[in-house]
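From the methods appendix. Each design record in this collection lists the tokenized structure first, followed by the designed amino acid sequence. Records were kept in a plain field format so they could be parsed without special tools. The example shown here is representative of the layout used throughout.

RECORD:
FOLD TOKENS (387 positions):
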């Protein structure tokens, strides 16, 4: 195994042992900055919190591309799917040493792969520029906006944006998703006149859903396969909780994960009608968070390039949206189109399920080298493509 691969595995394990929740990514950001400065990149820290922006300048005349990696860990009390742990749990030997935090979404791999791509490209003559964005606070959908609000990424005038996310496909595969991605998110508060109205409203709101959270790891894997066969063209996943206004009135909170995002207006109208029928009213604390939509042309081109570079058996084609997770890489795609790809990290034979946000998430570390090589190849190729 090449020396870089060994170093990246050790970097991943260091990050994995010391997970940092959203807004607390100081140590992780420091590791990233140290690695990239040593590789010769122009590094800016403290971007939108603990974000790191590292710029690799190649020869003049080429485009600017963005590569995004997220750094924060999962709050294990809040962000893990509520089903039992498997009978056989993979022991990685380098578990989290931080109570209440763990890298159960694969951001430790994302960060490590981003560092690996940057270090590899720094040793390769390239045309143009690559801006590596190491983002904090992805889990609460806050870090991308905070980084973009600094204006530093926009000043580089990127033409395209790319990212990877761990997925329960076999290690050694990568899936592209032209025209699809991940759902948008909307929070609606239904203020009700009394407690008697709560059950009826929450039941009616739940009926708006077209998919439910998976209840086991087997169901999770089965449902994830649906992104491959275009069977899930539309989806609404409903989450709910209750609280009270300052004057004591009950509030039913409805969280909608929606694909495609064009459905938001109609769903808001439906919820408003439910609220009115119950003698209450609907409040909208903010605009819906946008869906992450991969560019059709660029994601298709990426799939064809990766098929040629890695072999067609290594590239999968996703044709639908995974309905349970949102992703603030959507905001980077608004600035510059491109795509986020599913990186297979599962190895069923050894018990590594590769299923993010599950209590048993584990990833095959061979996927790190695969991700680095795939994205290094793609970015190098895209730097040669003229407008």
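DESIGN:
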């Amino acid at each position: 195994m090449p020396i870089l691969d060994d170093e990246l595995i050790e970097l991943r394990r260091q990050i994995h042992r010391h997970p940092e929740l959203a807004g607390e990514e100081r140590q992780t950001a420091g590791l990233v900055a140290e690695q990239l400065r040593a590789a010769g990149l122009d590094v800016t820290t403290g971007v939108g919190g603990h974000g790191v922006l590292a710029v690799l300048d190649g020869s003049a005349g080429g485009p600017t591309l963005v590569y995004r990696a997220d750094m924060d860990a999962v709050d294990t009390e809040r962000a893990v799917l509520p089903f039992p742990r498997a009978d056989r749990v993979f022991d990685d030997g380098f578990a989290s040493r931080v109570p209440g935090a763990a890298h159960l979404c694969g951001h430790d791999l994302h960060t490590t792969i981003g560092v690996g791509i940057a270090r590899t490209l720094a040793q390769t003559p390239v045309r143009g520029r690559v801006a590596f964005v190491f983002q904090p606070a992805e889990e609460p959908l806050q870090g991308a906006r905070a980084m973009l609000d600094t204006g530093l990424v926009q000043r580089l005038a990127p033409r395209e944006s790319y990212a990877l996310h761990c997925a329960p496909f076999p290690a050694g595969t990568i899936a592209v998703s032209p025209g699809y991605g991940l759902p948008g998110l909307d929070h609606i508060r239904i203020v009700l006149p009394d407690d008697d109205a709560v059950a009826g409203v929450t039941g009616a709101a739940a009926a708006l859903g077209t998919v439910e959270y998976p209840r086991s790891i087997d169901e999770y894997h089965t449902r994830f396969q649906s992104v491959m066969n275009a069977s899930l063209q539309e989806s609404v996943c409903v989450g709910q909780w209750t609280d009270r206004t300052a004057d004591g009135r009950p509030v039913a909170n409805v969280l909608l994960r929606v694909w495609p995002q064009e459905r938001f207006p109609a769903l808001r109208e439906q919820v408003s009608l439910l609220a009115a029928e119950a003698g209450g009213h609907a409040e909208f604390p903010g605009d819906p968070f946008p869906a992450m939509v991969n560019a059709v042309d660029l994601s298709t081109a990426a799939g064809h390039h990766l098929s040629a570079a890695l072999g067609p058996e290594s590239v999968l084609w996703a044709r639908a949206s995974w309905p349970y997770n949102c992703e603030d890489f959507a905001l980077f795609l608004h600035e510059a189109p491109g795509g986020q790809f599913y990186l297979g990290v599962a190895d069923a034979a050894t018990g590594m399920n590769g299923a993010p946000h599950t209590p048993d998430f584990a990833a095959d570390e061979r996927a790190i080298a695969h991700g680095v090589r795939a994205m290094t190849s793609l970015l190098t190729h895209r730097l040669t493509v003229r407008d």
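APPENDIX NOTE: The longest helix spans residues 366-384.
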